[in-house]
């Protein structure tokens, strides 16, 4: 077992716990507006795996920062709707609305990033 992989497992255990406690307090529920407060609160949970502002610190998690907004939005919907199967991410996005996904996709796509994404304009 590699060191990075072990760290990933530890993070999964811890992050899963953190995610559960945060969602119990604030809720990802459909009643929450997708405003900047919601985004900054929610992305704290995402940061435990995807890194601060979406730049992942280990190879176990994808970098979200600077990724195409459409791609992020598509992925989030696919996890929620079961088209893209991943137990961890399905749990993260359960109960979120399309508006909330749009706000998250917009946020991450605009962060500074090591990814190279050619402009489509
Ligand atoms: C417990 C760890 C963990 C947390 C917390 C987490 N993710 Fe993820 N995320 C993953 C893993 C692992 C993958 C890769 C899954 C796969 O192979 O499809 C992933 C994949 C993704 C992808 C697809 C990226 C790509 O390049 O295809 C998006 C988008 C994403 N996560 C967004 C989020 C958002 C937004 C949050 C917070 C609401 C979040 N994640 C919270 C672990 C996590």
TrEMBL record:
Question: What is the residue range of the signal peptide feature?
Answer: 1-23
Q: Keywords in alphabetical order, please.
A: Electron transport, Heme, Iron, Metal-binding, Signal, Transport
* Residue ranges of every copy of the Cytochrome c domain listed in the record: 24-112
- Name it: Cytochrome c, class I
């Amino acid at each position: 077992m590699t060191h990075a992989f072990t760290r990933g497992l530890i993070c999964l255990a811890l992050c899963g716990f953190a995610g559960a406690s945060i969602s119990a307090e604030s809720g990802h529920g459909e009643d929450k507006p997708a405003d900047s407060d919601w985004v900054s609160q929610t992305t704290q949970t995402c940061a435990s795996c995807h890194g601060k502002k979406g730049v992942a610190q280990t190879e176990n998690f994808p970098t979200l920062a600077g990724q195409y907004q459409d791609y992020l939005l598509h992925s989030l919907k696919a996890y929620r709707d079961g088209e893209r199967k991943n137990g961890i991410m399905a749990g993260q996005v359960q109960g979120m609305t399309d508006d909330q996904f749009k706000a998250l996709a917009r946020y991450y796509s605009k962060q500074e990033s090591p990814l190279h994404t050619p402009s489509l304009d």
